[in-house]
Amino acid sequence: MPTIDRDLVRAINSGRCFAIIGSGPSCQMGVPSWKQLAEKAIDKARQTSKVSIVKECLEFLAQKNYPKVFSLVEKAIGQKELLNLVTASLDLNGLSRVILQQTLMTTYIST
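RE: above sequence
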């Protein structure tokens, strides 16, 4: 069984430590990946009549150019609607929220 370094344990117990959780664990807790978030945004843009923007978004999605996808979706649906979509998609209710509240240190989640 692996052991945890004593200095690390002391740092955690003192409150001087924080964790940065990358996309692997956060995706397992239900946080969408950049690709999934971009796909949701494109689906929202499909509800508009801006077919050329959606087509362009799909091209940038294939290139994994997510910032460009979100920029184009914002043009199609507006900043407020895009922010609402992202906020709703990143809602950490339920189990993942409970897990984070019970951690021994400050935790930052990325996608």
